[in-house]
Amino acid sequence: MSYQYILTEEPQPGVGLIRLNRPKALNALSPELMQELGQALEEFDRNEDVRCIVITGNERAFAAGADIKAMATASTVDMLVEDIIARWETIHHIKTPIIAAVSGYCLGGGCELAMSCDMIVASETAQFGQPEINLGIIPGFGGTQRLTHAVGKAVAMEMVLTGRYLSADEAKALGLINYVYPVETYLDQAVKLAAKVAAQAPLAARFAKEAVNMAFETSLSQGLHFERRLFQMLFATEDQKEGMAAFVEKRKPTWKGR
Questions:
Q1: pTM of the model
Q2: For the domain 202-249, what is the CATH code?
Q3: How many angstroms separate the CA atoms of 88 and 37, rounded?
Q4: What is residue 145's DSSP assignment?
Q5: Is 132 a catalytic residue?
Q6: Of these residues, 104, 109, 143, 243, which one is catalytic?
Q7: pLDDT at position 78, please?
Q8: How are strands ordered across the β-sheet holding 52-56?
Q9: By Cβ atoms counted within 10 A, which residue in 89, 142, 148, 213 is the most buried?
Q10: End-to-end CA distance of the chain, in Å?
Q11: What is the residue extent of each domain of the chain?
């Protein structure tokens, strides 16, 4: 498909890359961009050859927030009728693992988008924040919930109530992100990580993502029951037979995604 606000490519076998492309607006997440992002994610998710997706921006900004100009004059009725939050729900239905590659500003909606991904790789210049309080609002795309799960109540409260940013090193120490790399290599490293995920058994990777996400949405006993069922279901797949046979025979498995 042809897009106006994003760019897509497949930099390595099994990896789909989506680049947010509103550089003059620091990749502000306009409704139009979010619609295109959802379409691209769904397209990659349907593509059996794409087994991991990377979302990135540019060196200066992953995304500096939602498009404030698009919301500045909105009323409560406008927000309810247009339901721009619904555009964000697409990412939660994507079964393929997703990695955010973040450099520079990752603020407001940008931080919420990164946290909606399954892993985050950052450059040394990355800054993470939820500064909506400075606009007279609060995070509305999951920021108060995901941030608290990731960094704990005290830090989340400080960030949401004061607009404080986290540096890449702070975010790594607090468990918000996975890795920090130089600006020159952060995207390459994110693609390498995606390639490692893409090399795994596709159904097992999707089930693993689903099981880990369930840990944030249910009790421990319910989560364990859910995990057990997914574990058992994988024994009906050809990849389970291939993976265990390859282990016994001391060779590399060949996954079929079946």
A1: 0.92
A2: 1.10.12.10
A3: 9
A4: H
A5: yes
A6: 109
A7: 60
A8: 6-12, 15-20, 52-56, 98-102, 119-123, 179-181
A9: 142
A10: 27
A11: 6-198, 202-249
Mean pLDDT by 10 residues, the chain (258 residues): 91 96 93 92 95 97 78 63 69 95 96 97 97 90 93 96 96 97 98 97 95 92 94 92 91 90
Predicted local confidence at residue 245, as pLDDT: 93
Catalytic residue among 16, 104, 108, 132: 132
| 105-107, strands of its sheet edge to edge | 61-63, 105-107, 127-129, 165-167
96 and 50 Cβ atoms separated by less than 8 Å: yes
Q: Which residue out of 66, 190, 201, 208 is catalytically annotated?
A: 66
Q: Specify the CATH architecture of the domain 6-198.
A: Alpha-Beta Complex (3.90)
Catalytic residue among 16, 112, 204, 208: 112
Instruction: Reply yes or no on whether 112 is catalytic.
Output: yes
